[in-house]
Automatic annotation (TrEMBL):
Involved in chemotaxis. Part of a chemotaxis signal transduction system that modulates chemotaxis in response to various stimuli. Catalyzes the demethylation of specific methylglutamate residues introduced into the chemoreceptors (methyl-accepting chemotaxis proteins or MCP) by CheR. Also mediates the irreversible deamidation of specific glutamine residues to glutamic acid. Belongs to the CheB family. It comes from Bradyrhizobium retamae. The gene is cheB. Residues 190-386 form the CheB-type methylesterase domain. This is Protein-glutamate methylesterase/protein-glutamine glutaminase.
Length: 388
């Protein structure tokens, strides 16, 4: 997850434009803290502060929120049970699941994503821990702002109608969505003529769904080449994600271990809270994990992986930047291109947030900007020798 010491300026808003946020948590301390943070932002407001999922379901028609921050563990009706009922009543509602860092809650958060939740956020074990609370504060406000703004754009006149909850849970991972507005063509560069020897992937918000869809369709690539992934995600959550990636790909996938040799046929996932790099050790590439400071406000971050891979594979790198907030991966992508490798970015229409892939696309470093469901076939062709 991201860690921030600074806060990006919000857009200027009038009261009518403010994002309406419903906070649902059985802890009065958490509700009060989140409500204060939201109330301090000029572009959002608290539409309701509720104790249970049942309260949220019963009152949503009256409250009409744009975004709901929904706790997992609550009396009367918990978050995972309230989720489909809320989406049934308000199809375009953006739901961000909030939970403490336990394996059970991580599993529930992944289930929530499959049921239509837009994202998740880990709550600190104690609000008295300054660093943890500041991270939670920053990440929550950014998720509300970016996900809420995207939902509003899609609900504006001329945009595609909101999908039903079941469709919404699958759209990012399977179906490209029509872009809301026409855009000027982005600069492209040719794919490298060097044969790729490794696949590197970076992702953040919306990444788990996108990653599972992608790895399910790149079996021929995984079988012959190593795949290394950095997803902005905390500990425990990356453990669960690795298990989901193994099931989706039907290949070996695990959290990377410091010092292990990188081999074809395997997916290596950066563990939450540690940067993953690769280093040359004799004839082998090996994993190097470190507990250094956040990079791009993130830990793990994509740039350390991308930059370190150049020393190992030089121009034989194929990199993919998927949906996510911020610009992590863009600088590392520039270095990969300068070394002779290639970058593919997910397009805006199929991204939950077009921050990371958009930064790469707008920097002019991409050989292709593609809908999610076009990326896997392209990778299979490129790793089979097609350089077009």
């Amino acid at each position: 997850m991201s860690v921030a010491l600074t806060k990006s300026p919000p857009p200027i808003s009038t009261r009518q434009d403010k994002l309406r946020v419903m906070v649902v948590d059985d802890s009065v301390v958490i509700r009060g803290m989140i409500s204060r943070w939201i109330g301090a932002e000029p572009d959002m407001e608290v539409s309701a502060s509720l104790r249970t999922g049942l309260d949220a379901v019963n009152q949503i028609d009256r409250i009409k929120p744009d975004v709901a921050v929904l706790d997992i563990e609550m009396p009367e009706l918990d978050g995972i049970s309230a989720l489909p009922q809320l989406l049934a009543k308000k199809r375009d509602l953006v739901i961000i699941m909030a939970s403490t860092l336990t394996r059970r809650n991580a599993e529930i958060s992944f289930k929530a994503l499959s049921l239509g939740a837009a994202d998740y956020i880990p709550k600190p074990e104690s609000t008295r821990e300054a660093t943890a609370a500041e991270t939670f504060h920053h990440d929550l406000i950014q998720k509300i702002r970016h996900l809420g703004a995207r939902a509003r754009r899609r609900a504006s006149p001329g945009a595609s109608p909101a999908p039903a909850p079941a469709e919404r849970a699958r759209e990012v991972s399977i179906h490209p969505v029509a872009a809301p507005v026409a855009q000027l063509p982005l600069a492209r560069r040719p794919f490298s003529m060097l044969a790729p020897r490794v696949l590197l992937i970076g992702s953040s918000t919306g990444g788990p769904q996108a990653l599972m869809a992608l790895v399910a369709d790149i079996g021929p690539v995984i079988d012959r080449f190593p795949v290394l992934i950095t997803q902005h995600m905390p500990p425990t959550f990356t453990t669960i994600l690795a298990e989901h990636l193994a099931r989706a790909s039907r290949r070996s996938a695990h959290e990377a271990v410091d010092g292990e040799i990188v081999k074809p046929g395997r997916i290596y996932l950066a563990p939450g809270g540690r940067h993953m790099r690769v280093v040359r050790h004799g004839a082998d590439a090996t994993i190097a994990l470190d507990d250094g400071p956040p990079v791009n406000f993130c830990k793990p971050a994509v740039d350390p992986l991308f930059n370190s891979a150049i020393d190992v594979w030089q121009g034989g790198i194929m990199s993919v930047i998927l949906t996510g907030m911020g610009s992590d991966g863009m600088r590392g992508g520039k270095e990969i291109v300068a070394a002779g490798g290639s970058v593919i970015a997910q397009d805006e229409a199929t991204s939950v947030v077009w921050g990371m892939p958009g930064a790469a696309a707008n920097a002019g470093i991409c050989a292709a900007v593609l809908p999610l469901n076009h990326i896997a076939p392209k990778l299979v062709r490129l790793f089979s020798g097609d350089r077009s």
